[in-house]
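$ ./design --mode recover --in tokens.txt
reading tokens...
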């Protein structure tokens, strides 16, 4: 497994496993504490694992947390997703930068997203399972959602949106969401 810095988002990393394939399929390590530690992250900081299943066209996001924020490791364990990260840390050298990734069950690449960044994704396949490992327990009172179609972000979502949560559908634009994040 190797770690590669994401140039568009300061402090973000891609963790790329080395799959071992044979006639049965493949095997790969999807988390390695030593590799995580090698880029200055504490592997023991992650306290909660979650999984979502989405169907083609479903859009989830853009989400972040107020207060101390939330760092996370995201991996598409089955299918494919178009993944988006937006740096919303005012002190960051990559503030307001966006980065786009295609994560898939075939590669099992994991994306590390630093606290203070917004995250969202769209399912590209009929079924897409997405795993999350976060660094603190979820507190719904800290949830901040940004409109997926905010023109200031101009995210090139690859498919028409087939479904999203009511919260995501009613999300405010970036400017209003940033005010919520600060409070």
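writing sequence...
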């Amino acid at each position: 497994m190797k770690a590669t810095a994401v140039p568009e988002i300061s402090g973000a990393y891609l963790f790329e496993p080395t799959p071992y394939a044979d006639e049965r399929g493949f095997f790969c390590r999807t988390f390695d504490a030593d590799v995580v530690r090698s880029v200055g992250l504490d592997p023991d900081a992650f306290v909660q694992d979650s999984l979502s299943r989405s169907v083609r066209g479903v859009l989830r996001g853009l989400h972040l947390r107020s207060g101390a924020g939330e760092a996370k490791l995201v991996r598409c364990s089955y299918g494919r997703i178009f993944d988006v990260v937006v740096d919303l840390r005012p002190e960051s050298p990559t503030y307001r930068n966006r980065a786009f990734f295609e994560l898939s069950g075939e590669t099992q690449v994991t994306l590390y997203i630093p606290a203070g960044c917004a995250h969202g994704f769209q399912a590209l396949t009929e079924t897409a399972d997405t795993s999350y490992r976060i660094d603190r327990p979820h507190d719904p009172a800290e949830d901040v959602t940004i409109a997926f179609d905010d023109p200031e972000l101009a995210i090139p979502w690859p498919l028409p949106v087939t479904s999203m949560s009511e919260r995501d559908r009613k999300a405010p634009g970036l400017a209003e969401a940033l005010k919520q994040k600060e409070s």
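exit 0
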